[in-house]
């Protein structure tokens, strides 16, 4: 395995810092409201998937530094798998925000629904993002 160059590592670091800051800026106003925070996480992750899918065709001819900045850096910092898993493991706060009791059955149903919605939106965002990326790349003459 080859070692990544310092420029690529720096790009991942810089992109990650910016992506994390952007996620914090979008999500922090909603932290006091569990349902809104959960929806904000869903929106952030869906947008992140679309941007990541669009960036592939757009950056097809770019070097590894640009790809590292956008992919594992910017979008890796912006999106959050851990917050989704935390919501799935502990849906009680969202149930309480909806005025529902935190029972095992409702918790499991809420977690299953959240997982299905997250996957469906992610899949749709990936398709739409990829299509948009190919159109933008074609318009710029960057298509491989």
Automatic annotation (TrEMBL):
- Fetch the Pfam families from UniProt: CRCB (PF02537)
Span-the-membrane segments of this chain are: 32-53, 74-98, 104-126
Q: Where in the cell is it found?
A: Cell membrane
For this entry, list what GO says about its biological process: monoatomic ion transmembrane transport
Task: Show the catalytic activity.
Answer: fluoride(in) = fluoride(out)
Instruction: State the membrane topology.
Output: Multi-pass membrane protein
Q: From the record, what ranges are coiled-coil?
A: none
Any one annotated GO CC term: plasma membrane
> What are the record keywords, sorted?
Cell membrane, Ion channel, Ion transport, Membrane, Transmembrane, Transmembrane helix, Transport
Which InterPro entries does its entry note?
FluC (IPR003691)
* Annotated function: Fluoride-specific ion channel. Important for reducing fluoride concentration in the cell, thus reducing its toxicity.
Family recorded in the similarity comment: Belongs to the fluoride channel Fluc/FEX (TC 1.A.43) family.
This chain's protein is named Fluoride-specific ion channel
């Amino acid at each position: 395995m080859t070692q990544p160059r310092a420029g690529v590592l720096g790009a991942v670091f810089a992109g990650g810092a910016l992506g994390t800051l952007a996620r914090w800026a979008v999500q922090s106003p909603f932290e006091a409201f569990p349902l809104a925070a959960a929806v904000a996480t869903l929106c952030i992750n869906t947008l992140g998937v679309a941007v990541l899918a669009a960036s592939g065709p757009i950056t097809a001819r770019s070097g590894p530094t640009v790809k590292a900045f956008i992919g594992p850096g910017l979008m890796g910092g912006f999106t959050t798998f851990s917050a989704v898993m935390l919501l799935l493991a502990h849906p009680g706060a969202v149930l309480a925000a909806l005025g529902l009791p935190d029972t095992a059955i409702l918790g499991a149903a809420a977690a299953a629904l959240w997982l299905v919605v997250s996957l469906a939106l992610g899949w749709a965002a990936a398709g739409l993002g990829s299509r948009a990326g190919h159109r933008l790349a074609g318009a710029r003459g960057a298509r491989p």
